[in-house]
Design a protein that fits this description.
Blueprint lengths: L1 H29 L2 H32 L17 H21 L7 H7 L4 H18 L3 H4 L5 H28 L1 H35 L19 H8 L5 E4 L8 E4 H18 L4 H12 L3 H24 L7 H21 L5 H29 L7 H32 L1 H10 L1
Helix pairs in contact: 1-8, 1-11, 1-13, 2-13, 3-13, 3-15, 4-5, 5-10, 5-12, 5-13, 7-8, 7-10, 7-12, 8-14, 9-11, 10-11, 11-12, 13-15, 14-15
Amino acid sequence: MNFFRQWGEFMMMGARFLAKWEIDNANIILRDRKRLAILGLLLVPIIIGGIAFADVFVEPIGDVMPDVLGGHKAYSPAFYNTFIFIVSILIGLGAGLITGCIGAGGGFIIAPALMSAGIKGILAVGTDLFHIFAKAIMGSVIHRKLGNVSVPLAAVFLIGAIIGATVGGLINRVLYEINPVLSDAFITTVYSGMLGFLGIYAMLDFLKARKAAAGGAVDTGAHGGKVEGAEMGNLPQKLQAMKIPPIVKFDYDFVPEGRGISWVFLVFSGALVGMAAGIMGVGGGFLTFPIFVYVLGVSSMTTVGTDIFQIVFTAGYASISQYAIYGFIFYTLAMGMLLGSLVGIQIGAMVTKVVPGITIRGFYAMAVLAGFVNRAFALPAKLAAMGYLPISKQTGDILDAIGVWAFFIVIAGFGVWVIGTFLMNIRVLKGEEGRA
């Protein structure tokens, strides 16, 4: 039970950091006219193409090029029309609302949402990675955090991250070549395990917080959590005591002679993060922060800057080298999700000012568990299609439909509640901004 609690805290810490990174990026993009102009230019060909050309040319192109991105038979869907673009905006909006309102990992729902919308898992992963990379480049805050970036730490970590991302991308592509259904089943299984664990922990955390609130304890809100400074636990101390050369030094601001850790542990940690990014498409950022603080013993100040630094390069390398050059990125979807998430994050962040933190925790637990149910109920149909589960196609389709409906009902319900709360409290929110 203690291990479950510690691992849950480990994942929640990473989810909160990843959300903070996304919120910072969104704020920078929306408050800079030049960045907004660039975003507008990127969207122009998508909008014009959807209105003027999609219906005319999609069918002929699909017939001529069935095996590449743009053909109907390559992936589902792999062709572009306006409806798909609108769906991608709504998915990004939902993820953004969760990120901004809850302050923890709305990006976890993107790949399950895309797969539920009929997109192959490998395409969902590649597109999600590219969406993260685009957001990182457009809203990059590296220049503001350079004082906290340990270049030696980041460089050695990125060696492992590149290796891990390569392996993760290779696994996804090999499985897809063997059988696209096998690829979907693998990605679905990974997401089921991760979302199931995180969802159960989040729900238990919510119930505990509600009980504490009922007893008169102070609610710390959705953005709360332990903040790590220069202190270290037992595991980091043991790892730093193992002097396997070469030793990478860091944290001179906290310790006069600095701290040091063997490159072996950095490369191994980077490989784990890179593999998670390559397989799941979430950038790996949700793992880097807790690994640096809880496992490697890096101060939170150094971790923040170094993690932001690595997200840009890990997501960029994985999305381009492992997915884009093989045709596994749907550019239209990525831009739609970026647009929707920028709006959703702003609305969600403002709603936190007028909603109790305990309520937000409950919604987060429900959203993550909905993602778990969605992927868990999709798995039987995929296993049955490969002959590994003795159930009829009709039964598998019914279970899949239940998971899809449960997922979108919860996410849509959450979205309606957040936007409704925002609209009903506009005057209050304007008053707070005026006093800020």
